[in-house]
Design goal:
It is a single chain. Helices cover 48% and strands 17% of the residues. It has a five-stranded mixed beta sheet, sandwiched between helices. The longest helix is centred in the last third of the chain and has 26 residues. It is globular, with a radius of gyration of 16 Å.
Length: 172
């Protein structure tokens, strides 16, 4: 997968809303809420142009029954994909456009982790700028190596997540 980081694009939030409607139509009453998260949900930050979507559902095990409908929408269902209690879907193969991390509505640990980072970056522009700068530098250094890109930002992301959760839990 090519690693491409771009300046913020307001179209990302529109893309999320359009995709969220399609997902709502599929999941129906099983859906509790749906969130746009990740860097494309943070105005002003540089990001890979992949929309991160987090649907929250009543019962995570029921999600598997929607796989055929998700495939028809262009998603590849990958099960838990390394995170217990998650259902992960990606769209666009090597030219990925969307990825979905679906959790049961009461999986507070995973949900809070994702929303805390998003909200922290929205409220702390200096952290968002530093994160975007790091991603841009890594993308230039590793344009054909997503693993090296991910490894290069791992320590930053872990520290960011810790700060964000401390901040987020004070706000709740």
């Amino acid at each position: 997968m090519k690693v491409r980081v771009m300046n913020y694009d307001a179209q990302w939030s529109k893309n999320f809303r359009a995709e969220a409607k399609k997902i709502r139509d599929i999941l129906g009453d099983e859906l509790v809420d749906i969130h746009h998260f990740g860097s494309t949900a943070v105005p002003g930050i540089r990001a890979k142009p992949i929309i991160d979507i987090m649907p929250l559902v009543k019962e995570i095990k029921r999600v598997d029954s929607f796989n055929d409908q998700m495939i028809a929408l262009g998603y590849e269902p990958l099960g838990e994909y390394g995170i217990k209690g998650r259902r992960y879907f990606r769209k666009g193969e090597d030219n990925r456009t969307h990825q979905m991390h679906m959790f049961q509505f009461d999986n507070a640990q995973e949900i809070d982790r994702h929303l805390a980072v998003r909200d922290y970056l929205r409220k702390h522009p200096e952290a968002a700028r530093a994160y975007g700068d790091l991603k841009a530098k890594l993308a230039l250094r590793h344009p054909e190596d997503i693993e090296a890109y991910m490894n290069g930002k791992d320590a930053f992301v872990k520290e960011l997540e810790k700060k964000a959760l401390d901040w987020y839990n004070k706000d709740i």
